[in-house]
Amino acid sequence: MEFINNPREIEERSFEIITEELGDRVFPENIASIVKRIIHTTADFEYADLLEFSNDGYESGMEALKQGKKIYADTRMIQVGVNKKALADHGIEIVNYSHDPDVAKEAKLRGVTRSTVAMEKALKDKTVGIYAIGNAPTALYTLIEKVKAGEAKPDLIIGAPIGFVGAAQAKIELDGIDSPSIRINGRKGGSPVVAAIINAMLYQLGREW
Amino acid sequence: MEFINNPREIEERSFEIITEELGDRVFPENIASIVKRIIHTTADFEYADLLEFSNDGYESGMEALKQGKKIYADTRMIQVGVNKKALADHGIEIVNYSHDPDVAKEAKLRGVTRSTVAMEKALKDKTVGIYAIGNAPTALYTLIEKVKAGEAKPDLIIGAPIGFVGAAQAKIELDGIDSPSIRINGRKGGSPVVAAIINAMLYQLGREW
How confident is the model over A84-120, as pLDDT tens digits? Predict the structure, then answer.
């Protein structure tokens, strides 16, 4: 069996294929790098149609990353999916609270998702600039409610909860606030997609292999 | 905003919607639970057509889980995506070596992927029964070569590397060996899909919330 076994070559060739198959669909360079990295992660070209930027989500998010602001992720999968070296290079921390014992306990008591309680915990930390949601519509709802109440002012919301109950609807609710956002419309999204968005943005700050 | 905020309810309703939309496409119960959990994870119904079982992959995999055999996962995302409580209930450990310093060092020296070296390391551990690949075609190729050489005899290969270079081809190579397997044909797959397959099988052993 012959195959390309060099990681850098594999990635470069993958991006060439993606660019080829996107064909006429050409995006501005910074957007293109996000679109392509999502497709690289999912092998699903539909994402080119589902990605939406609002209220200078890209610019505000890049600024937050430059300032080394913290990222709150609603899943551990996002945490492990984001390039650790790139985070370290820019002094950025990515945190997730949904598995914390205090969060689990409170969620059970209140009969709500751990994601809701974890988001509430994240919102108390004023060093968080980016809220990245790949799993729980309830986390996104909680965040949107707090923004509406004037209790949160995110630099960027990555709204990409996946699923059949509440996910598409929660993303539509983003239209009701003026927070900078990057979203995946519809049911699709998920932790690898969120990690891909963050990685693409981090790599734009400068990448070392 | 009104929304379902009870985790069990959200999952049940999601599975109802998936069953509804699968329509005429009815699968045997054990297979159905895997198909539906993958769709639940990806919001992508195409997976119903991409999932393939070979050489009693399901039966052999369930037996390995019953015996508490170790799972090797090629990504940390799979590790964190598999239900920890379900693993603990059945005394099953899931390991990943691709971030080990010795693995990274050797990969760099040899100019191969960390996934290849990590798979070689996993193959030395005879307590591993299930090899779960969601990312690296090179990990799957390495495994297939070792099986062909008579140096590995997996209870189950979950072959679901995702991507544009080598992924689809690596899965076709599974036809050249008689190992029990569950695969995702074509370019699609990925860590959340692999985690969904493992979770569905673990839940069939008995689930407590």
Answer: 999 999 999 999 999 999 999 999 999 888 999 999 9
Q: CA nearest A163 in B: which residue? A: B43
Q: What angle do CA A63, A76, A33 make, to 5 degrees?
A: 40
DSSP characters over B17-63: HHHHHHTT----HHHHHHHHHHHHHH--TTHHHHEEEETTHHHHHHH
Q: CATH 3.30.70.120: does it fit domain A51-204?
A: no
Here the ipTM equals 0.91
Nearest to B165 among A10, A77, A163 (CB): A10
Q: What are phi and psi of B42, to 5 degrees?
A: -115, -15
- The CA radius of gyration of chain A, in Å to the nearest whole number, is 17
Which architecture characterizes domain B50-204 according to CATH?
3-Layer(aba) Sandwich (3.40)
Chain A residue with minimal CA distance to B85?
Answer: A99
B11-61 pLDDT per residue, tens: 999 999 999 999 999 999 889 999 999 999 999 999 999 999 999 999 999
Nearest to A120, CA basis, from A134, A141, A135, A101: A141
Phi-psi region of A56 (alpha: psi -120 to 50; beta: other; left: phi over 0): left
Cα–Cα distance for residue pair A71/A156, rounded to 1 Å: 9
